[in-house]
Design brief:
Layout lengths: L8 E3 L2 E2 L5 E2 L2 E3 H10 L15 E11 L12 H10 L4 E6 L2 E13 L28 E9 L3 H7 L2 E2 L6 H4 L5 E2 L3 E5 L6 H7 L2 E8 L17 H11 L1
Antiparallel strand pairs: 1-4, 2-3, 5-8, 5-12, 6-7, 6-11, 7-8, 9-10, 11-12
Length: 238
């Protein structure tokens, strides 16, 4: 479990081989994975989705690379276009030193602006200890995820919880609940774990998985989501 006084996500300053300095956002569990395994090769992705199931997750997209290929700041439209290109492709997530292959089948983006808080919990801070206090094009989302594991169990595992409330969404409204999130990101074939983390455009931080009946499908999944709840979840991730 994460300590409630420690941020789950932080900036990792790295100098690339081309001399460029970048600061991708990395989750605490990913730090641990890199420390334990050195960020080695990723197993070959499954050939199909046999045995996979659909789940709906709420979370926050954390932008790591803020410039487009032209070197200009990435626009919201460019980011949204990039996200659409990542649908139905293999992604990987790390939890408790295990890697999981998953796919995002569809996404609903909530455009209400989000802020990033510094490590003291402030939405704006002049101290040099903070993460970016600007909105950085982060956005709240609801996604339809195809997973070979019970995704709700995985996301629940990485939640720090001492409120003991029955309804998980209600926990996001309480002061004694500090949500964590399961980081999911596009898998670039042939890259190591470290290379994927270093070069990824951003991370889908999955923070809450809905309990859905067997009626869930790719055609009706948006009927089950609540945009206000999705935004509430995303606003507590950072």
């Amino acid at each position: 479990m994460l300590d409630k006084n420690v941020l789950q996500f932080a900036l990792l300053p790295v100098k690339r081989n081309d001399g460029r300095e970048v600061s991708p956002i990395v989750a605490a569990g990913e730090f641990q994975y890199l420390e334990d395994f050195g960020g080695g090769e990723i197993a070959v992705a499954p050939k199909n989705e046999d045995g996979y199931e659909l789940s709906i997750c709420y979370g926050r997209y954390l932008l790591s690379i803020k410039e487009s290929q032209s070197g200009e700041p990435i626009t919201k439209q460019e980011l949204h276009d990039q996200v659409q290109l990542e649908l139905d492709k293999w992604m990987i997530g790390i939890s408790e030193n295990q890697t999981y292959f998953m796919g995002i089948k569809d996404i609903v983006i909530i455009d209400t602006p989000l802020e990033r808080k510094c490590c003291h919990g402030h939405s704006s801070c002049n101290s040099n200890h903070g993460t970016n206090s600007d909105q950085a094009n982060d956005f709240a989302f609801a996604v339809l995820v195809s997973s070979n594991a019970k995704l709700k169990k995985i996301t629940d595992t990485v939640i720090y919880d001492e409120s003991n409330a029955v309804d998980r969404l209600e926990k996001f409204k309480t002061d004694d609940f500090k949500p964590s999130a399961f980081p999911l990101f596009i898998n670039v074939h042939g890259y190591t774990v470290f290379s994927n983390i270093l070069n990824r455009r951003g991370t889908y931080a999955l923070a809450h998985t809905l309990s859905i009946s067997d009626e869930l499908s790719e055609s009706n999944w948006t009927q089950f989501i609540n945009n206000d709840d999705a935004y509430l979840v995303a606003s507590r991730v950072l």
